[in-house]
Fold each of these.
Amino acid sequence: MIKIGDKTINPTKIICIGTNYMDHIEETKLPVPKEPVLFPKTLNCLIGDRDPIIYPKLLFNNRKLKRVDYEVELAFIIKDKCKDVSKSEIYNHIMGYTVFNDVTARRMQTKDILSQLPWFRSKSLDTFGPIGPRIASIGEIQDPHDLKIELKVNGEVKQSSNTKHLLFKVPDLMEYITSLFTMEPGDIVATGTPAGIGPVLPGDIIEATIEKIGTLTNKVILEGE
Amino acid sequence: MKVGKKDIFPSKIICLGRNYSEHAKEMSSDIPKEPVFFCKTTNCLIKNEEYIIYPRLLYENEKLNRVDHEVELAFIIKKRCKHIKSIDYQEYILGYTIFLDITARNMQIEDRGINLPWYRSKNFDTFGPIGPKIVENIKDPHNLKIELKINGAIKQSSNTNSMIFKIPEIIKYLSNYITLNPGDIIATGTPEGVGPIQPGDLLESSIEKIGTLTNRVILEEILES
């Protein structure tokens, strides 16, 4: 259960889309996917606006793993239980939109990917999924594919793009995901991050902004401090 | 989710990969130096005597038409925990049960081969039978016969004493990364002998001192809308 603005949601899963902005695909040198690339985050990662992101000591004190990245993303929240939703019906099953920061232990992820291991531990550390500051309703956002998306660290712009650059759009994602899995009310789908990803360190303030939704602000602190 | 007489409310399902060396060999995988984790989402959970639904999108695609059984010993978390010491592990375990990690094998191999996450192949609805009950007092969970039969023929037969990473190490390692919550399910990996299932098959998964989890496989029906 998590409170986002004035709404409380009770997600059963968080599904994220990898490599879904052309500019991000170019910077990561990953191949252009033919179908959406899905990975999960577990619910222990969720925190709200103004909650601290905790930089784990096991990463901070390990030279080989000491890199944690921000990734700002447009997320949508599922309204009701659904499966096999057709593109024309998708907006009947979406409650609204919010900002999600898919915080990632980058070196750990790279190491696991190269060994063809699952993308799990690097993505699902506690507090690695800030969400908020509110849920904008479907009525407020007529077109989710024309929103400025930006992320600042300590006031400096690091990511700046527009959701029109999404490779797979919200209807594509919704149709694809529900062809595979049953979605439940409150489930979170994060649509992928644009170019400009980079590291954060304890003490940094991250401001993730999407037009018509607002700004999600979180400070990074070292575990135990 | 009702498992036997107990209701549990899992917020996550975490599975170990490659935790029996004979299984790692049959998958042509390296023996891991530290535990390999991935997660399943709760849409996959079903109970004893419920159906495993073989999705048509796998069944009708000759490249993806392979779904495997993997019997596993699972334990259920009793209380919220982080950074626990292995010596105290029993204190954090509610009990033990049987978990069947159903896997769309060809899809998993295809995804792994291009360094994609192990997600969709593991998380189709009904791909996580659990039960038939949760047994609380097993003094030594590392000396239990574990077996899986299809239509009465033995396919997997081993003992939990062959696990590479034992439960105290697993819980210590995992809780070093993430907070575990009451009801969370941890599946400890499958022994050798994994293989395909087909619609119509009857699966019986047994672990000594726990019981037998029985599930029939059926082909997904397409509902006329």
Note: The two ends of chain A are 26 Å apart (CA to CA).
Amino acid sequence: MEMATFRIWRGEKGQGKFQDYTAEVSAGMVVLDAVHQIQAEHAGDLAVRWNCKAGKCGSCSAEVNGMPKLMCMTRLNTLPLDRPVTVEPMKAFPHIKDLVTDVSWNYEVKKRIPKFQPRQPDAPDGTWRIAQEDVERVQEFRKCIECYLCQDVCHVLRDHHMHEQFIGPRFLVYAAALEMHPLDIGDRVEDLKKQFGIGLCNITKCCTKVCPESITITDNAIIPLKERVVDRFFDPLSKLFRVFSNSKR
Amino acid sequence: MSDYITHEHDVLIIGAGGAGLRAAIEASAAGVKVAVISKSLLGKAHTVMAEGGVAAAMGNVDDRDSWRVHFADTMRGGQYLNNWRMAELHAMEAPARVHELEAWGALFDRTSDGRILQRNFGGHRYPRLAHVGDRTGLEMIRTLQDHGIHLGLDVFMEHTVVTLLKDGGRIAGAFGYDRERGRFHLFRAKAVVLATGGIGRAYKITSNSWEYTGDGHSLAYDAGAALMDMEFVQFHPTGMIWPPSVRGILVTEGVRGEGGVLRNRNGERFMFKDIPPLYANQTADTEEEGWRYTQGDKNARRPPELLTRDHVARCIRREVREGRGSPHGGVFLDIAWIKERVPNAAEHIKKKLPSMYHQFKQLADIDITQEPMEVGPTTHYMMGGVKVDADSQMSDVAGLFAAGECAAGLHGANRLGGNSLSDLLVFGKRAGEYAAAYARDNSLGAVNTDELGSAEKSALQPFEREGSDNPYTVQHTLQDVMQELVGIVRQEQEMLQALERLRELKAASERVSVPGNREYNSGWHTALDLHSLLTVSEIVTRAALERKESRGAHFRDDFPGKDEQYGGFNIVVRKGAGGGMQLTREPIPGMREDLKQIIQEMK
């Protein structure tokens, strides 16, 4: 039976160290299987957050060999097993214990984003008529499973800790899903500039690279939002137009 | 002395999947103070895994559809053990619940004239499932979550309830712990809604998430509420079986719908060997005819692979038992073969089944356009649950409500695909509405602090013990026992053996010890989940022993036929005065004449 070594971060509230464990490797195994095996056999109190184990809930986010990954979708045969596989918690959020971090900040951020605001229904029975192509435009953003790996890898949050000023890629995608929603008539452009720090993103595309749902975060969500902000606040012609139209009132 | 944090609310909702969130939204809209307890993080509940769609007779694709057809389909699917009033309310109210989701931001796939698109599904006469590709559950839970967070709900993420509290005959609240710090919490509430989902984690092979340990079933039972239809556990015929790490993950019915066929190790289409007489007229005689059906030929009859879930699951099990299974103990599901019939088959398959292609490629290194998949049955859904009043969703315990998978009644002996998501919405809303009304009419119940002290003491015991039993081992053994002895095909001797094993496991669960402290201690959490798992496992086994016939999802090797007299009652389980399980056969109330007539018309 093939064995592999897993170097897992153990400790509480940022304090701790790596500890090595060995696990039996079987066909098709993913990192989360190894963590479960270690938990059941060697470290009963090992803290790990997981739920569906099918890549659909986005709970088991961690850093495997330094890369932000869902543990349930990272197969061991994609990793070199001749050296220890490191498994550590995400870095952009406060540490709780072992592989678990406090991601509650994300839930607070979401509440700050003005909610969905539909236009009046199109039909007398209170329903809407929407073209499939308009639905498809935002369905990509709505695939997000909120694993927060994009937040973890974003240097504005991870290295510069600007959690107060910047909502991060996940919530720029969320804002894009609302702004481009075929029924929504809300306006979040000013908030994006002033409250949500969209200008802090300098398009390094790290978020796009780690997204397990392959959402084209930077190109399809963030850049179009940046363009809306630019059009509203920095376009000299429309600025002039606004001054003109205001002066007429 | 016990040490806990106290919270007070009008309505306490336990569970934050589709049913819990829908209940919370409704109760909050009624103006009462609402708390939601979520075992995981918000938005991670098992609802995210639903794929196919939400059943609602909107008639957008076929205007012959109506609530009456949906009602009749649901009753037929449930083999008439359903609570007919729930089936009626469900069919009537589902369209409004789906439209409401759209008003809250959900984006369903569209028809060419811009309305919500609906798809065909097993047991539904007309195209009825509103959907978003194959991720309808995610769309639903995210919509409810994003709507709910602006309503001032108090959400307690990663909290687990260990016991419900009563004041005499009525509910008074709940007691539990938070995962992060391991602190205890007293939740006082005027009304409590259980929305905890299913019990799939009692089985080794399951499509269900980690949290599905039957908490709501067990909490209600311990609080004196009645559980009903607990013998009916749905096994989906096609789950992944290899590699071991992905065993149980669902393989959508759509693969067979697109022409995928089931074969045993000898290459034989074994489903042709056993076609129930009831379905003989609707089933293809030849492989050729079956293929034409999957390609939309309205004159062809369906291939036997598309018979009901329970039947297909049992046939697969038979092949495996009789030594004709695939190398890893399943059978082959082959869609790659259609290259004999379809030009550019590989592209065609990727386009029709994108997530299945991705799932097998990423997790099993299998290219389904080139080679067959290995599949086998997987535990999927619990039809049984808390017995509730159809209109209000209130249980036998005053002020205690239940909705969604942890409640019983809508699905009877077998659930139709798509009816679970509509169930969550229709009855989640009703539970929230009636719980809020109950809270307005009643004050907070008194809490017995001695009871809290003993609940806390018993929860902490795994830290005190020196014993060597490991909670993970007990859980794994329990899953083996249920899988082997109370699975798809049941018989008396095996189930009696299961009861014996469960007794031993119960004793072992009282000896388990865990290392470490109370902060996010997964071993401790596993130890505390054992009580629910053991309780529901025993109830399932006893109810399955009591039903000496085969009906819907419940199949007895020793009683393979349907027995008329068993069609007249539900099996109800309550905790007896002495602590033992009491089973009763409760006659199904006579159906209203107008509903009977609908069923006659739709025959």
Note: DSSP finds ten helices and seven strands in chain A.
